Amino acid sequence: MTRIVHLTHSRDLRTGGVIEAVLRLDESLRAKGISSAISDDPQIPGGDATHFIVHGLWQWPGLWAWKRFKTTGCPYIVFPHGMMDPWFKKTFPLKHLKKQAYWLWRQGGIMRHAHAVCFTTEEERRLARGTFWPSRYREVVTGLGVGSPPGDDKGQKADFIGAFPELSERRILLYLGRMHPKKGLDMLLRSFLGEERNDEALVLAGPVEKTDPFTRKLLRSTHGREKEVVWTGMLEGDLKWGALRAADALVLPSHQENYGMVVAEALSVGTPVLLTDKVNLWREVKQARVGLVAKDDQAGIDGLVSDWRAGRHHEVSKGEACIRCFEENLHIASCADRVIELLDESSQTTGGKRA
Known about the structure:
Helix content is about 45%, strand content about 15%. It is an alpha/beta fold and about 350 residues long. It folds into two domains: about 5-145 and about 330-350, Rossmann fold (3-Layer(aba) Sandwich); about 155-330, Rossmann fold (3-Layer(aba) Sandwich). The protein starts with a strand and ends in a 7-residue tail after the last helix. The mean pLDDT is about 95.
């Protein structure tokens, strides 16, 4: 029997998309009858596992799986989750040099001995090439995604508006995620606050760490404009889904975004998305006509906000098309099927080993 253990550095939901991806893939595999578990503890990752899925680079999971493979032949696959994106190389050159050194010493070997290195989009795979040297590993695009949305539309909307009654009868532009410099929120706030509209609200939903310098900067920029910019804190469960359903559009103005789980979540409930071309799902969004895409600079974000205010996103994005795009391209079940194929394939190789 196939017994999978996902190895991840952290299970803290506040850290963003990696753990969300792990949870969704774990759920989908179990729904298909596969024994699947998650470990964030290098001391107890699962002795009876037949396969490991390594999530992320540079931390203990990859090294642990590689050592297990060397001693027992137990196969593993690796999801980099955007950690090979050249944006990090350009933005943090000194950190990149340290990572390149680790790549030469260990990470490159971890990738080479993996049965597959799994990219969630074709864009992620393309961007990863050449970021580190030497680059020898087996590339596979598996997709990613989320499951079908839980709960009911009306009830979740009512819960959300009940928690934030100031948003009643207002058009909502929703950002849902971490407050991090790479997310482009400073540009978004400049665009949104450049014009005062009483019938609109920008909702910033995510953990608010008031000791963080960037978050403090964002909070200062919205002082006195609390009616227009609503900080909800981190939303989970029905409140999160209620926000996605109540929003007129989701916005993700990122400078770098490997996948954007929240994009799949928004589309699953029929909510169109506004993205930069640094969100790796932008091609899928543009091709399916389920949102608007712009450059990740101030002019690009100004254009997205202006187009949203003019309702242009609804000219190209219909709720039915959003849901269809999700079901055909962004449902986690498709990713789970591909992962199962890879793991079955790895079991058939001699001793589970790759040269």
